Amino acid sequence: MTREDILQIAEMSKLSLSEEEIQIFMGMFSGVMGQVKELDELDTEAIEPLYFLNVKDKPYREDVEEESLDRAEVLKNAPEEEYGYFKVKKVMD
Amino acid sequence: MDITSLTAMEIREKIANKEISAQEVIKAHLDRIKELDGDLNAFITITEEEAFEAAKRVDEKVKNGEKLGKLAGIPIGVKDNIVTKDIRTTAGSKMLENFIPPYDATVIKRIKEEDGIILGKTNLDEFAGSYSTESSYFGVTKNPIDRERVPGGSSGGSTAAVRAQEVALALGSDTGGSNRQPASYCGIVGIKPSYGLVSRHGLIPLSNSLDVVGSFARNVTDASLLLDVIAGRDEKDPTAMDIERGSYLEGLTGDIKGMKVALPKEYMNMPMDARVKEKVLQAAKVFEKLGAHVEEVSLPHAKYAWATYYLIVVSEISSAMAKYDGVSYGHRTEDYESLDELFIKSRTEGLGEEIKRSIMAGTYILSTEEGRKYYEKAFRVRALLKEDFDRVFEKYDVILTPTTPNLPFKIGESVKNPTEMYGSGIFCIPANVVGLCALSVPCGYVHGLPVGLQIMGDRFKEANILKAAYAFEGELSLGGDK
To answer: Among A72, B30, B70, B226, which residue's Cβ finds the most Cβ atoms within 10 Å?
Structure first.
């Protein structure tokens, strides 16, 4: 893993890293990928991936209209709101 | 009478018999919290006012001869990643420092419907993403057994609170051992139910295909009581299944004659503290004495469980954390010029090191060709792991392993030696990867530090592991109060 690789992953993760963190992550990635590569020992070509554990007998519910959360209640947690909407700074000219 | 040393069942009975009032029970426990928690730091938020209101309602019911709920008057701690209406819920993160949920999680609703009394929200590793409760934004929780040591994690606040008799019961969540490992470190009982037994609606997600909500208590009966209340289908969580089951409490007979118990050689041969191994082998002897048949079995893919778990968990963490962007709720940076800067600064300021590490690893796995190759492979190996367990459960009722390979480590040690901390989950993660039920029950002490026995069962066979644990606990009598 290069420094550039780490910075690109940070950009995708929407995180900004300190110089120290970049160094830590470079070490971490090589260590972890080393352990993950243990899976190479297994031939899994013929094995179906198991993505979901609860696929059988999935219960369905009736399609009944339900009251959803109150808008004012929900907006109480917004860092900024106006006219019932989440507000951020102007981002387009 | 020392009220805080009563079990949940005793509290319930004494309130129903008018020997004590719910308000007395709550006061005794809140006093205990005030006495101890300044140093232990098991709680992030204490809900004294709401607790007394709820206790008054229970006392009214008793006075009026109304039917009491199954948890009437029992003081309960709730891990702070389970949302509670109008009560701050932080997930141990600066990101949610001021988050006040507008609804109750389904498990909270069920507790309230049964007259359970919530005393507060307990500390945890940030977003439940580690094993020591040291990564919380709200400080470290100490282990009540030895205050220089961690309580384990991520549900360390809940397990410390139960052990210290600040509450009789608690809720936690378990993604890779977060209920069982801290239960082991604090010498109490911790249950990780099968994936799909308990609703996750209102559990702040860490890893959607692995997370489950479970219960803690100082004995098996009490932990079963709480599981009985929270288990069951929920229309708000499509993964919560409709499982036919009897009462777990009623299944605790103490009789396990003829029960088939498996001891997996691959796990027993993994590197671990020899004293822990010794205690678990002694526990297997206790099962034999109780009339169970104990045999060695093989789970051939055991050594691949960690890599499989890691690939799934970090990928899902990176996805679950994507919603914290500073827009609709959670921490927002003060100063930004563009939306991108809003996202980056809010996340960088609001999230801790441990979670950032997982997000980075998950993003790498999901966004690179090499990473995706291993991600897909993990789900194929998951199928192999499931086959291993399916084969064993065709013949056996339960599997025994240590809960953790080590004893509780000292606060601060995990920074120097992170491998020991992550390694502490090694016996726990297979149950999450395959969706099995499992629990940790105390099986002895080494120099005053507790050792936990893990009992695993097939999916939705909670009755088996609880019955086994109950019989074992009765024989060994090490748990806590009874």
So the answer is: B226
Is the Cβ of B415 closer than 8 Å to some Cβ of chain A? no
Q: From A12, which residue of chain B is nearest by alpha-carbon distance?
A: B363
B360 and A13 within 8 Å at the Cβ level: the answer is: yes
Residue B144's Cβ-side half-sphere holds a number of Cα atoms within 13 Å equal to 26
B56 in active site: no
Assigned token pair, B68:
């009491």
Burial per residue of B3-20, b for 16 or more beta-carbon CB atoms within 10 angstroms, e otherwise? bbebbbbbbbebbeeeeb
Provide the 3-class DSSP secondary structure of residue B415: helix
Catalytic residue among B154, B155, B207, B346, which?
B154
Q: Do the Cβ atoms of B102 and A13 come within 8 Å?
A: no
User: What is the share, in percent, of chain B residues with pLDDT greater than 90?
Assistant: 94
Is B171:B158 a contact under the CB 8 Å cutoff?
Answer: yes
User: B233 contacts in A (CB within 8 Å)?
Assistant: 59
User: Any idea what DSSP says for residue B174?
Assistant: E
- Min CA distance, A83 vs chain B (Å)? 14
**B81 HSE (CA, 13 A, CB side):** 35
CATH domain B1-482 topology: Amidase signature (AS) enzymes (3.90.1300)
- Pick from B445, B472, B480: which is nearest to B278 by CA? B445
Residue of chain B with shortest Cα separation from A52: B209
- Give dist(CA B140, CA B413) in Å, integer: 13
What are the strands, taking DSSP E only, across B134-288? 169-174, 189-192, 212-217, 260-264
Mean pLDDT calculated for residue range B313-323: 97
Q: Is residue B209 annotated as part of the catalytic site, yes or no?
A: no
Choosing from B14, B61, B70, B79, the catalytic residue is B79
Cβ distance of B374 and A28 shorter than 8 Å? no
What count of other Cβ atoms lies within 10 Å of the Cβ of residue B51? 23
Residue B435's identity, in one-letter code, is G
Determine the average pLDDT of the residues in B426-434.
97
